[in-house]
Design brief:
With 248 residues, this protein is an alpha+beta fold. It is built from eight helices and five strands, in the order H-E-E-H-E-H-H-H-H-H-E-E-H. Strands 1-3-2-4-5 form a five-stranded mixed beta sheet, with helices on both faces. Strand 4 (222-225) and strand 5 (228-231) form a beta hairpin.
């Protein structure tokens, strides 16, 4: 009888131990879920904070100064030439093309080749091209900054061609290597590296993106030939017909 009671007591004790173990397990699982939810919420809040900072920079942006004519920072309905814009052609050229493009877009690469053909046909007194470098990806923004850093030394078009020639594997090292290759573009590499690593041209890309957004640009390449918008790829012959109609 005593042995039977001892067995019953042991069963009860074991049952209580199992219950305690399960309670600890459930409590631990609950704590893990709670910590996971808190961590996930923190990640979302942190991500939104970073995004808001970026959006705030886009919303406020750098101060915009215009050449012809002076206008305010309000939203615009057609592009203007900014003081720090890259352009080729006389300020008083008969026709101005505003060219919005991403250096890492294959279609923009093809479009730039068509622009070069136009320069062979029209003198700078007749045609001016204003480059409006835009980008949505990290690599694209980096490439645009590098091109504008080259422009600080008067070598934008040469550097642009070197990037367009091989749009793959773009990173800081490759962009610096292009700047150091004297057969591609003659730059003072130390000045270029300082410009790129210090992100001296970052605001310029934000500025261009803001302008593109204000103008309703939703695809690249995108043109304004004088004040008329043109969306998508155009051959140099098609653009030439438009230019001819405006020159006459």
């Amino acid at each position: 009888m005593l042995k039977k009671e001892n067995k019953n007591i042991k069963k009860k004790i074991n049952k209580q131990k199992d219950t305690i173990v399960w309670l600890f397990f459930i409590a631990g699982l609950g704590l893990f879920i709670l910590m996971f939810l808190l961590f996930f919420s923190w990640q979302i809040i942190g991500s939104n904070s970073v995004q808001n900072n970026v959006l705030q920079k886009y919303a406020t942006g750098p101060k915009v100064s215009y050449e012809d004519p002076l206008i305010s920072n309000a939203k615009i309905t057609y592009p203007k030439v900014l003081v720090d814009d890259v352009r080729k052609g006389d300020a008083n050229a008969k026709v101005t093309i505003f060219f919005y493009c991403d250096l890492l877009s294959p279609l923009c690469k093809q479009q730039q080749a068509e622009i070069y053909k136009l320069w062979a046909l029209y003198p700078e007194t007749e045609l001016r091209v204003v480059w409006k470098g835009t980008a949505a990806t990290t690599q694209g923004i980096l490439a645009q900054q590098a091109a504008y850093c080259a422009n600080a030394q008067g070598k934008f078009w040469e550097y642009q061609q070197a990037v367009l020639a091989d749009q793959n594997n773009i990173d800081v090292k490759r962009l610096e290597d292009i700047a150091g290759d004297q057969s591609l573009v003659q730059l003072v590499q130390s000045e270029f590296i300082s410009c790129l690593q210090e992100a001296q041209m970052e605001d310029k890309i934000y500025q261009n993106n803001i302008e593109a957004s204000d103008l309703g640009i939703d695809a690249l390449p995108y043109f304004f030939i004088d004040n008329t918008p043109y969306r998508g790829f155009f051959t140099y012959q098609e653009i030439g017909e438009i230019i001819d109609s405006l020159i006459k």
